[in-house]
Prior knowledge:
The chain is built from five helices and six strands. The protein is of the alpha/beta class and 131 residues long.
Amino acid sequence: MPAAILRSCGVKTNAIVSEPRRVAAIGLAERVASELGDEVGGLVGYQVRLQSKPPRPPCGTVLYCTSGILLRRLQSNPGLNGCSHVIIDEAHERDVNTDITLLLLKRALDINPELKVVIMSATLDVGVFKR
């Protein structure tokens, strides 16, 4: 999904993808960068606690991070200004960080109506997220 968004929206893309685990964030950043014919730290990067290899702007970028990193970004930048897309992956693996992040993303949409939020899961119970 993030690679498709990057290809579709091009230089206007500044996407953040939240993964529940560090290993997933780093591994997916490496895989997507490879699929795009790039290295991590180019179009695609990652940020996890104590380890970071951010993407290089100004062209479109995708940053993979853990839910805790995204939560801290939302606390310091409530509208996620400068961000075009937020993707919450593995949303069925709910934890406190993800639940608070989803609440803050709802507020971020009020501040920044241009922000696009995608919630992904293979086994998501939609009813839980409607409430």
